Structures are given as C-alpha cells and as structure tokens.
TrEMBL record:
InterPro entries: HATPase_C_sf (IPR036890), HATPase_dom (IPR003594), His_kinase_dom (IPR005467), PAC (IPR001610), PAS (IPR000014), PAS-assoc_C (IPR000700), PAS-like_dom_sf (IPR035965), PAS_fold_3 (IPR013655). The keyword Nucleotidyltransferase does not apply. Pfam families: HATPase_c, PAS_3. The lineage of its organism: Bacteria, Pseudomonadati, Bacteroidota, Flavobacteriia, Flavobacteriales. This is histidine kinase.
C-alpha cells in the first residue's frame, strides 16, 4: 500500500476507495475502503480488472470503463466516469470514478491511481440527471460524441455531432464517406490520427478542419481513444468533436497580427540600422575629408580630396533615395487600387528594359490565363515585376541564356503570382534568412546593390501580402507572391 502521509490525509478527507495500478498488468491493489464500500472482505473477491469487469461492474458500464481503464494504464489518459458496482447484497451502488488528476493536491505518486467516490442518491435518479446534464453540456459547449465500430464497420454520431456537422437527425454516417467529412488539406491529418489510434492504440487530441453537409469549412477539436474488447483487442475508436471555429479564427487572426507586427518591427529595425549606420558613415567620411582639406596646403591634394567628396555625396544621395522609397511604400499603401491586367503591367516593364532583355538574350514566358487581372496598385505590380525580372537577368547562369517564366493563378480562393528563372540560384542554407534584407547581395556582380528584393517585400507586405522564395544553386530561383 502507499506509504505517503499527504496521500493518506487527502484520502481520509475524501472518504473514497481507490485502486493502485502497477507495471504488471495483472496486479491491482484495492484499498480497504473500496472493499468496505461494497461489503466484501479482501479474501472474498479477486482484485483484478478481469474479475471486476465480469462480476462487479454493471453490464451497461463495462465497455466504457474497460476502454478508459486500458487507455489510462497504457497511455496515461486520465478519465472520469459514473459507474454502477454490485455490492455483496446484490444491489448496485453508484460511484464516480476518477484518476490521479481528480485530487486537489499533487500526491507525487509514481503509480497510477483510480478513485471511487460513492454517490449517496438513488442511481436511477442520478442517471436521469446525468443524461439531462449530458445533453445540456453537449449543447452549451458544442461538443458531439462519435464512435467507430471496426467489427460492424459502422460509424455512430450523437445528436450534437449531427448538429455541428449540419446533417439531419436521421442521417446515418458512412465509413466510406469519412474522408469527405474533412477539409481537403486536413484529410491526411485525420487519416494519420485514426490509423495510429486503430493500430497502435495511440489517443489523439488535435485541431482539424472539417466540412459540414452544407460545404462549410470550419475548425473542430477532435479527441479520440481506442475501444477494447474483453480480450483487450482494439475494436473501435470513441471520441468527441468540439466546434472551435470562432476561437480558432480569432487565434489565427491574432497570430497574423503578431506576424505583421514582427514584420513591421523588422522593417523598422532595418530602417533604423540604415539611418544610424549608413548615414553616419557617410557624414563621418565627409567630416573627415573637410578636416583634411582644411589642414592640407597643397592645392593638387585638395582637388583630389574634393573629388572624393563628390563620390561620398553620390553615395549619400543614393542612400537617402532608398530611404525615401521605403517611406513612400508605407505612405502610399492607401492609394487607390485599380483593376490591373498582368499582361499590361508586364508589357510596360519589358518595354522599359527592352535593351537589357535583348542584350541578355532573355526569353520571358508568361501565362495569365488562370488569373487575368487583380485589384492592386498598378505601380506596385510593375515595380514587383521589374525587380524580379531584372534580378533574373543580372544573375543569369553564365552557361545559358536566361529564361523567365511568369504565371498568375488562384488556389483555395487566394491569388498568386509565380516568377521562375533558370539562373545561378541562391544557397538557401547560407542566405535563407537574409534574402529580403536591405543591402544584402549573394553574388559578386559589381552593380549589385541589394535593395530590389527588400523593396519588393515591403511593397507586397504593405498590402497584407506575402512573398516566399525557393532556390537551388546552379538551377534557378522561384518567387511566389500571395496577394
């Protein structure tokens, strides 16, 4: 028996019997209080789960208790359940059985425990109440129960599951149609959960997208655990669905806001870095040169230094222009959007850099059939195309002519633009987190500045879009813009 003063004090206050479960599946120790509550002595009955299921527990409660017990022993899945147990006199008493987490304090037990709290009211009265409270609880928490029977190859839903999934009360769920109850991008997740539960007895508790009878996609929390027979074989899965669509959407919206804030903070950090570092470098150089000019007597040396001032002034002006462009993006993001055809924007860009395309022997292939136009700021779309196309030409592979493929399309209600080239590619292991940084370059072109992709990312994100990149060295790069 447990030798734990804290445990014994708690149990004394609870006035409850309990079981101790050990590693040996055939070893359970039943407390003295448990025997007393049923009117037996320890010598009169066997303290094993098999004896309990066969001779003591009411037949109506056998299946659920056996499942709960085995899941608790094998997978540490805590449970609470009302059951009826036969006393020595042949009558049944109603108990609420619960596991370790029922206690108000942590008894720090290294073994699993099941407690049996006797309910003094008449069992029939409590069962009726339980049924009422079950329905009330199910409706108020939007939680429906379900069961999959492997032997009969049938699926069973309670009234609340049918309501959640918007099926009529007389609807009979089908295992053949089980995949259709889940959103397309969640079907594999559902299959994995059910397979692992059915084959390995692994319970699951996951958030997943389901589809109602009216084709409405929504989020649920799906909880399931295996069902066992007398031979302790898995014969089904029992669980619940809880509608968490409102909560999940708020969570996703909050996460999106957090991502936007993090992105904005990153841009502010970049901006602050440029202002504090780059501008200070230019001004420091200017101050130093002015000081040198004042200290030098030789006119020729002064002229040489003045020429350097010209170069520094040019660099300073360029940096300020870049900063102005960044500020302009976020200042102009509220300007009016217009229906803009992708082909028109591409034509404007290619006409403007026609010489660059010709000299680089660049071939541009476009496909806008799936998505011909978009409601967007025209100047932004042109700028995005310009930066991605000129980058593909600048960083073409030395052994082949540049081929750029541009495609617009729709997927799951979202609009995308994909730009793929066959250029040098980018080493994603080295530069994945730096690709869209300001003044970041990944090749050795003398005219590389590292501002184009930074501006493109800012333009896309300023209108709540997203840009991602896939690349492989010597094979090429693909940019995907989600508008």
């Amino acid at each position: 028996m447990l030798q734990n003063e804290l445990f014994n004090n708690v149990i004394r206050d609870f006035n409850a019997g309990y079981w101790e479960l050990y590693t040996n599946p055939d070893k359970e120790i039943w407390s003295k209080k448990f025997y007393e509550s049923l009117g037996y002595t320890q010598k009169e009955i066997q303290s094993t789960i098999d004896f309990f299921l066969e001779h003591l527990i009411h037949k109506e409660d056998v299946d659920v208790f056996r499942d709960n017990f085995l899941n608790y022993r094998r997978n540490n899945v805590n449970f609470k359940q009302h059951i009826k147990i036969q006393t020595k006199t042949g009558n049944y008493k109603l108990f609420r059985c619960a596991t370790n987490d029922e206690l108000p304090v942590n008894i720090k037990s290294e073994i699993n425990l099941i407690f049996f709290f006797e309910i003094k009211l008449e069992p029939e009265q409590n069962i009726a109440k339980d049924n009422f409270y079950y329905k009330e609880t199910a409706q108020m928490t939007e939680t429906g129960s379900w069961y999959v029977d492997f032997h009969k190859r049938k699926s069973y839903w309670d009234f609340e599951t049918k309501r959640i999934l918007e099926y009529p009360d007389d609807y009979v769920p089908s295992l053949k149609d089980s995949a259709s109850y889940y959103a397309e991008d969640s079907q594999q997740q559902a299959a994995d959960c059910f397979f692992n539960c059915a084959m390995a007895g692994t319970p699951f508790n996951t958030e997943i997208k389901m589809v109602t009878a009216n084709k409405r996609v929504f989020w649920v929390r799906a909880i399931g655990k295996p069902v066992y027979n007398e031979s302790k074989e898995i014969i089904g899965i029992r669980g619940v669905f809880q509608d968490i669509d409102d909560i999940k959407k708020k969570e996703l919206s909050l996460q999106k806001s957090i991502d936007i804030i993090a992105s904005q903070n990153s841009r502010l950090f970049n901006f602050a870095h440029i202002v504090s570092h780059n501008l200070r470098s230019h001004t420091s150089n200017l101050s130093l040169l002015v000081q040198l000019i004042e200290d030098i007597e030789d006119p020729k040396e002064k002229i040489d230094l003045i020429k350097e001032i010209k170069q520094i002034s040019y660099s300073l002006n360029t940096t300020i222009e870049h900063l102005n462009e960044i500020v302009a993006i976020h200042t102009n993001k509220d300007q009016e959007k217009k229906i803009t055809k992708f082909q028109d924007a591409l034509n404007l860009v290619t006409n403007g850099i026609g010489q660059m395309i010709a000299v680089g022997k660049t071939k541009i292939k476009s496909d806008f059939k799936a998505l011909n136009e978009i409601n967007y700021i025209p100047a932004y779309l042109e700028s995005i195309l310009l930066n991605l196309i000129t980058n593909a030409i600048k960083y073409k592979h030395p052994d082949r002519d540049a081929i750029i493929e541009i495609k617009s399309y729709k997927e799951e209600g979202k609009e995308y633009l994909k730009v793929t080239d066959n250029g040098r590619g980018i080493d994603m292991n080295l530069f994945k987190d730096k690709i869209f940084g300001m003044y970041k370059t990944f090749h050795y072109n003398k005219d590389a500045v590292g501002i184009g992709l930074f501006l493109t990312k800012n333009q896309v994100e300023s209108l709540d879009g997203k840009i991602t990149v896939e690349s492989e060295v010597d094979k090429g790069t693909t940019f995907i813009i989600e508008f």
